[in-house]
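Recall the central idea of this unit: under ordinary conditions, the amino acid sequence of a chain determines the structure it adopts. In this exercise we apply that idea directly, starting from the sequence alone.
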Amino acid sequence: MEITVQQIAMLLQGEVVGGDANAKVSTIAKIQEGEQGAISFLANMKYEEFIYSTKVSAVIVSKSFEPKQEVPCAMIVVEDAYAGFTDLLTEYQRMLSLAKVGIEQPAFIDESVDMDKATAYVGAFTYISRGVKIGKNVKIHPQVFIGEGVEIGDNCVLYAGVKICHGSKLGNNCTLQAGAVIGSDGFGFAPQKDGTYKTIPQIGNVILEDNVDVGANTVVDRATMGSTILKKGVKLDNLIQIAHNVVVGANTVIASQTGVSGSSEIGENCMIGGQVGVSGHIKIADRTMVAAQSGLAQGLEKPGTRIMGSPAIPSIEHLKSFAVYRKLPELQRIVRDLEKKVLSL
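Accordingly, the structure predicted from this sequence is:
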């Protein structure tokens, strides 16, 4: 598929400066590797040198960029180059996904399923259970399982091997990467007097609001009662565990290998690094930033707090403590020398 530089500029609400506005673009590439017919972007000035020798047909740049020498291709000037390039990738992916329509065989779709078959894609070996409702332009890749009573909004993409268990609800524009599991049983077991554990039925569900992305092999458990909720705009990386009855606030992002224990509530616009552990039944305030490998044992009430360490404490305090920790061998020698002097008096 080809599109002109000018058409891309119109899509991004930008302006073409220099080069050939009618040049045709058919692919996206890195600024240092692309050839004619490709488009790239410049957002990080560490790569500025490549814009003066690049072979691509066009580069997306920010309004603040002022070239130090002649640029050999067209520049599409937008407010923010990174955001503009993201919009271009999103549109490119959307157009690719829209090309897939139809139901591959073998696939099982219960006769009670409510689905817009004219815009849907269902990959081979997919199983769609009784009472499922699926919106428009939903793309379901091979080997997906969708349980009874699941509801899926418009423009969702379910990649290969996704499992959506009974009663789960997805809003519009959600993306589940390969192997994600939505609505598996929460980790609920009651200890018995004889030392064994009795399984507590998990009768709740999972709700994903609009524009939620879930990474590969990430698991979101169903609630014991009520709902586990990922609110609008939540982004989860690969290999994350979200336990039963957790609520993750709007536009919060969580990196890989993080585990959030049951009934915890994470606020809006939080940023949580990789390998973070969150204890159960705690609340984390809006805009909290948690460094990688931190452990949260207590809740946080003040919005915008930056924390790190295990147990996690404010970042500045942690860095000060670490500065002391690094000097412990030296401090130990000083204490021993002072001890010897005191004993010799």
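The helical segments are 5-11, 48-51, 81-98, 315-326, 328-344.
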